[in-house]
Amino acid sequence: MENMTLNLRIWRQASDSDSGELVDYTVRNVSPDMSFLEVLDVVNDDIVKSGNEPVAYDYDCREGICGSCSLVINGVAHGPREATTACQLFMRHFSDGDTITVEPWRAKAFPVVKDLVVDRSAFDRIQAAGGYVSFDTGGACDANEILVPKEAADAAMDAAACIGCGACVAACKNASAELFVGAKVTQFALLPQGQGERDRRVLAMVEQMQEEGFGPCSNEGECQAVCPKEISVAHIQTLHREYTRASMRRIFGAG
Amino acid sequence: MSAVATFLTSTIGRKVLMALTGILLILFLVTHLAANLLILVDAEAYNAYSHALISNPLIYIAEAGLIALFVAHFASGILIYAQGRAARPSSYKDDRWAGGTSKKSFSSSTMILSGAFFLLFVPLHVWGFKFGTYYDAGNGIRDLHRLVVEEFQNPLLVAFYVVGMAILGLHMWHAFGSAFESLGVTQRDTLRRTGNVIAVVLAGGFMIIPLAIFFLGGGQ
Amino acid sequence: MTLENKVPEGPIESKWQQHKFNMSLVAPSNRRKYDIIVVGTGLAGASAAASLGEMGYNVAALTILDSPRRAHSIAAQGGINAAKNYKNDGDSVQRLFFDTVKGGDYRSREANVYRLAEVSVDIIDQCAAQGVPFAREYGGTLANRSFGGAQVSRTFYARGQTGQQLLLGAYSSLMRQVDRGQVKLFSRREMLDLVIADGAARGIIARNLVTGELERYAAHTVLLCTGGYGNVYYLSTNAGNSNVTAAWRCAKRGAYMANPCYVQIHPTCIPQSDEFQAKLTLMSESLRNDGRVWVPAQKGDSRPPQQIPESERDYFLERKYPSFGNLVPRDVASRNAKAVCDDGRGVGATGRAVYLDFSDAIERFGAKVIAERYGNLFQMYERITGTDVYTEKAMQIYPAVHYVMGGLWVDYNLMSNLPGLHVLGEANFSDHGANRLGASALMQGLADGYFVAPYTVADYLANAKLDPVDTDHPAFDEAERDTTARVDKLLAINGSKTVLEFHRDLGKIMWNKVGMSRTEAGLKEALGEVRTLRDEFWRDVKVVGKAADFNKELERAGRVADFLEFAEMLILDALHRKESCGGHFREESQTDEGEAQRDDQNYSYVAAWEFQGEGKEPTLHKEPLSFDFAQVKQRSYK
């Protein structure tokens, strides 16, 4: 494959209180083996040399696991390839002459910090509200005393694979965080370690989720389609069951 | 806030309420369609059925229940829509669908509009038939069949009903599967296929009545 | 200053137990009077902050990233070792201890390693209780695998995402303390200086990366958990934001940097494809359990791998090391890959790669089993290279900088020579000697954070006579002034070369001359080149934007500036250590068979370097190593 020339239309926004706009950049000599973020690096190097401020974007591990990537590429969170974060999106999936639009996650709960960088601390606060097993260091029994059937462990791992990138929120027309919350709730609902505070957990996490301003689930499943870890919307359905049951138990005094 | 109120005002609680009311409304529509198809089969039987229905004193409770379902369904729909808009105040300049496993469709993207249409449709429908001209079929039985046949001689009304039922189908295309998913049922693909069949059957079934009357005459 | 390692007396099996008993405690009701700063929220930082918060201390946790959950511990794939002996295959604390000391090529502190092996079993219990979804057997017990050269199955794992799951476990405990108010979380903060007041570490200066403001944090002790400095090589498997700045600023305030030349090169990474590449990606070492490493026997054989018949392949690791084969330790595997490529038998577009072949494994176990074991890794490989391993049957791999054994010097209590500065995880030098075994980094990070620091930090707080120090102390003024001056200086240069270009140039010098194989001449050249590059940097770097803003260029400029200073210390350490050991291979010191040749007579010590000022030679302090319990041998994996 030959090297390409691409036209990037990148969202520039000084801060959350400023209005932003798409700005055009042409980048030449893009190798098909470059990752999308490496293309942004090249764009930035050019911008810096011209004395202007480079495009701010979040990155860290560049191997698809830290969840820093937060780019909507051509209208789809993390871009066109399934099960792929933006850092793992390689340019061989684009063609010479393509125009590529790059925007930040858009959600009320994820305010823009600068350009393509958004504030996702709402996820941390949801986690703080209940995404854990209340257990202090040091008091554990031997690990093999808590038996977890392989099927349960595997299913919990499917849910736990979430990288907290927020693409689910970005893709949802209602900016719903239910895939993120559902995955965490499911993980602990499946494991014996999480049973003691199962109701309390889901009630607290959902409450925090609402307080942060995330919207209701649309049941469209855009979230699953863009999720780089292919977290299933079945976790949202589990969340609905868990939340409804916990609420009923609270209403009828059983919880 | 009480535990009940907390649940009902939560994003999930609202979806559950919308799902439950939606499913009951679908059940209503299924019986409504089954009964209405009698129009095309036997006028007397149809009139007898509607007489039995309205002469039962429980009808007032049933009607009140139906109105409550409608109101609750509309209200939760509007609240959910508003919440969604508030959560996503700005849209993408380049806004596309993800494709792949997503079930996003024209139907799912227009739920609020297709739903809102029935705020117009239902009152007109009730006004046109329930409170329409009273023809006596004898023995104190209303000849509702005659009214229906007369009304559907009007091509504008037929068109209105056909379009209305197409919109019903559009709404139902997403609604059925979505409702069960909101209630926590995970068999997504099966639900979606079933929902699509129900959408076609309901919309098609209801459409047949005005079309058959208009083009083929009113039956007996 | 003399280096007191504070290793307790007594037999190695009881040192830690006895020491725990001898240490002072802080009563629960008094803990709230103590403030603790934890810098970094990877495995070491998150576990320490959570545990100290649970105990009742006031903890401030800082992370350079937008969330603690993104720390680079998350990228560890393979697993975590523990001497549980669940497989009944002869494992024990004693054996894990010995394997680690041997794997580290007898350059680690024995007592620390024993303690690490000892608490390894508690880590698994702890993480299981947190709900970490470890791989399980059908009966519900924990599954294990053998990993990276170990002859017992002692590695616990969660698919290929063990680091992620352990970090999320620690993160969830941390967030629980945030919810309780015991830990205050400060994200997008970068530590830029250590504040020493009245002879003890009492705070830090951090930059708020969103607003650009400098912030002061005061406390009774500082825990540095900021990871390793692998990015001094520019290309490494480390994350883009991993850096040496926090550790280096401590070094500049007087903390000794120990064994900086011990750098681990990981054998199974995806080869570099072009100049613009920003990072190298590691493929878990677990692949070597089933994959066979080979190159064509003939130079210049450019046929696709599956067209090269068995007889024309050289399975060089199996050939040279019949008993360990493809599972030799990382340094041995890496050097051998380099050797065959230097010999002209490397494969791929650049000739700097070897094959890791799965045809035998797929034939033996079937594609389904192999997909279960390595599916996510094959997927990752396909995504990056565009090659499908199931059809191609082989991947191309090449070594890359992965982990650093060196770090700030700490005593047995994980405290540096600066009172009150504790250093945990990869940021310290303590447990891995000259080479780290696979699946031991996660173990060490969590050991330090969950099971060592909570005791030793309490002991320090109970005994240190600390006057009240708040952020108005003159030491804070001074540190902030220094930091501001440095930031202003970077912004004022307005030269012509970007930070990225300087970093790439530094990386090339380091990789070519201070990489897998080092010579005196090469190191001396590197030293000169790094000094020249540093001068050029301060003359000609272009840093755009403002100080009081979200400014990634400025962040990176500060980090590259520190790498340029730190690199010199690393090279000097490599230059002075004329032996080969573990990850440090000096071509002058090898056996007739080309293996690393240690010189126990002259180099059995920890080299702790004291910074003496910019442009001045650092002073070397030696902590002698003695091996009273592990028998010292020349490593052999034949």
Walk me through this protein's architecture.
The complex is a heterotrimer of chains A (255), B (220) and C (638). With 255 residues, chain A is of the alpha+beta class. Chain A is built from 8 helices and 7 strands. Chain A has helices at 36-49, 121-130, 150-160, 167-171, 178-190, 198-211, 222-226, 234-251; strands spanning 4-12, 21-30, 71-73, 76-77, 99-104, 112-114, 117-118. In chain A, α6 (198-211) packs across α8. The termini of chain A are far apart. With 220 residues, chain B is mainly α. Chain B starts with a helix and ends with a helix. Chain B has a single domain (3-85, 106-216), classed as 3 helical TM bundles of succinate and fumarate reductases (Up-down Bundle). Chain C is α/β, with parallel strands linked by helices. Chain C is built from 18 helices and 21 strands. Classes of the chains: A alpha+beta (255), B mainly alpha (220), C alpha/beta (638). Chains in contact: A-B, A-C. At the A-C interface, α1, α2 and α3 of A face α3, α5, α6, α11 and α13 of C.
Topology overview:
The complex is a heterotrimer of chains A (255), B (220) and C (638).
Chain A: E1 4-12, E2 21-30, H1 36-49, E3 71-73, E4 76-77, E5 99-104, E6 112-114, E7 117-118, H2 121-130, H3 150-160, H4 167-171, H5 178-190, H6 198-211, H7 222-226, H8 234-251
Chain B: H1 3-9, H2 11-36, H3 38-41, H4 43-55, H5 59-87, H6 106-109, H7 111-129, H8 144-151, H9 155-182, H10 188-216
Chain C: H1 15-22, H2 28-31, E1 35-39, H3 43-55, E2 58-62, E3 80-81, H4 93-103, H5 110-130, E4 155-156, H6 162-180, E5 183-186, E6 189-197, E7 200-208, E8 214-218, E9 221-224, H7 245-252, E10 257-258, E11 263-269, H8 287-290, E12 292-296, E13 313-314, H9 316-320, H10 330-342, E14 354-357, H11 359-385, H12 389-392, E15 394-404, E16 407-408, E17 421-423, H13 441-463, H14 474-493, E18 497-498, H15 499-513, H16 520-540, E19 541-542, H17 552-576, H18 600-603, E20 605-610, E21 619-624
Parallel strand pairs in C: 1-2, 1-9, 2-5, 9-17, 18-19
Antiparallel strand pairs in C: 3-4, 6-7, 7-8, 10-16, 10-20, 11-15, 12-13, 12-14, 14-15, 20-21
How far do the termini of chain A sit from each other? 62 Å
In whole angstroms, the N-to-C terminal distance of chain C is 43 Å
Helix content of chain A: 25-40%
Strand order of the largest sheet of chain C: 5-2-1-9-17
H/E element sequence of chain A: EEHEEEEEHHHHHHH
Sheet of most strands of chain C: 5 strands, parallel
Are there runs of chain A of 5+ residues with pLDDT below 50, and where?
A: none
Which CATH architecture of the domain at 265-401 in chain C?
A: Alpha-Beta Complex
Overall helicity of chain C: 25-40%
DSSP, total strands of chain A: 7
Number of domains of chain A: 2
CATH topology type of the largest domain in chain A: Fumarate Reductase Iron-sulfur Protein, Chain B, domain 2
Continuous helix count of chain A: 8
Query: Mean of residue pLDDT of chain C?
Result: 95
CATH superfamily of the largest domain in chain A: Alpha-helical ferredoxin
**How does the overall form of chain C come out from the CA principal axes?**
globular
Query: What is the CA-based Rg of chain C, rounded?
Result: 24 Å
| CATH homologous superfamily heading of the domain at 265-401 in chain C | Succinate dehydrogenase/fumarate reductase flavoprotein, catalytic domain
What CATH architecture of the largest domain in chain A do you see?
Orthogonal Bundle
The CATH class of the domain at 265-401 in chain C: Alpha Beta
Oligomer: heterotrimer
